[in-house]
Amino acid sequence: TSSLFKMEMVRGLWLNTSVPVANQPALRRNLVTVTFPGFLSSRARVAKYTGPDAVTILDHARNHPDITNTASLPPIFSTTVKNAPRLMHGVLPLPDLDELDYNNISWYSPVTWYSFSRIRLKRVITSADCLPYSTNIPALNNLGGYLDQAAALEIIKVGIAALDAPPSHTTNKKLVLFGYSRGATTFLQTSLKLEKQYADRVSMVVLEAPFDTIDGVINDSSMFPGVSRMLLNRVGNPSPADAYNMPEETHLTCPLVFITSEVDKRVPKKTTMRAIEEVRRRYPTLPVEHLELQHSMHSFMAVQDVEDRDRYIEFMESMYNKYVPDESTTSDATADMGIAGDIGSQ
User: Fold this and answer.
1) N or C: which terminal CB in the chain sees fewer CB atoms within 10 Å?
2) Residue-wise over 125-151: b if at least 16 C-beta within 10 A, else e?
3) Which residues, in sequence order, are CB contacts of 224 under 8 Å at separation 6+?
4) Res 10 pLDDT > 50
5) Calpha distance 308→133 (Å, rounded)
């Protein structure tokens, strides 16, 4: 029964991703967005959230130590997803994380075959035009811990540099952080721990399905938590538990925008709700917003269900209008793409 249910979910997902977006939002030119992907994911999968705008991946960061100078990094590929909603705007071209290697693919690694299968499935389901294969380096899989938080800080600095570069410094652009799953956990922890000089430059943090701790998400999602921990230690390099401790105080003042799904089995809603409740308890003046979807699986919240997709669009538009409004929004979806391309309340 479970297998039949999953097959029907995949069939429905494929059918729904063939439905064009009738209410595609206009491009918001006042936003610069930096992203952090999920576990074993390329940053290219953010194309599920960018509508007709391509997500460009630059040459690997480890080949160019100064990641903040993105102008010196050559692009290696760009990705779009058919019928994706434009939920994110002005997504900066960035390198993938160090854990992904596009040049030395090892077909002897079971992680490579797992990644290969996931990419093939997502290529078919989402009609992504370019999701290249890569080898994963297990020692660098950190799942939102200290290594990921250090990488996220560098990405935030890239976003701030884009705000200060001409002509952005004269157009009052705003910086948005967007992460999903492991990336959401990473940006949640990193943004709360930012020094004031960086925290003051962030205008919104969008977090799709973050988990509170590694133990929390394993206990909530796995039938055999001990086995899951063993596998994680073999294919990852998790940080100690204190990596997921929120600081007693934060310099962040911008809204934290959470998205969950009632049917998410990978990061169940209750796992994210613990993080939301902790944020509200520790930082009562920090704006917190929450959208709960009803029908979408973990990896496809933006595209799986047409009703959820439309609610996601409406929610994000309301968040942008409320916190980072842009009076110059235009319906032109493709020009000037130099930098890319029930609703709760606080």
Assistant:
1) N
2) bbbbeebeebbbbeebbbbbbebbbeb
3) none
4) no
5) 29
Alpha-carbon span 285 to 27, nearest angstrom: 30
For residue 333, count CB atoms less than 10 angstroms from its CB and return exposed for 0-12, middle for 13-18, buried for 19 or more. Answer: middle
Check: CB of residue 149 under 8 Å from CB of residue 238: no
pLDDT band at 115 (very low <50, low <70, confident <90, very high): low
Structure tokens at 242: 């204190």
Helices 269-282, 214-221: crossing angle, 10 deg rounding: 150
- Is the pLDDT assigned to residue 74 strictly greater than 60? yes
Q: Which residue's structure tokens are 């004031």?
A: 196
Give the type of residue at 88: M
Cα separation, 133 vs 68, in Å, equals 26
Length of the chain in residues, anyone?
346
Please give the pLDDT value at position 47: 92
On the CB side of 41, CA atoms within 13 Å amount to: 21
Provide the terminal-to-terminal Cα distance of the chain, rounded to the nearest Å.
39
Percent of the chain's residues with pLDDT above 70: 76
User: How confident is the model over 172-181, as pLDDT tens digits?
Assistant: 899 999 999 9
